[in-house]
Amino acid sequence: MGTRIRLRRVGRKGQAYFRIVIADQRAARDGRSVATIGHYNPRTNPAVLEVDKDQATQWLAKGATPTDTVRSLLKRAGVFGTRTA
Hints:
Helix content is about 20%, strand content about 35%. By secondary structure, it is of the alpha+beta class. It has one domain (about 5-75): CATH 3.30.1320.10.
């Protein structure tokens, strides 16, 4: 089973709020998930981002692949260090 770290949309129409979840890559966007590791609300100023860093690093170590958007959010949250070339 290939797992992904991705966003699940919740909230009313026009008032999106996202949960950061671990899900099977074949599951639907808002379908079944394995675990929830945080949430993201882009509508507030500044945007609210909360991530359980320990769980995120554990899932990354197990081979879970983040989507591009979640990868940038995890960088902002400090889960990924900045790479030096």
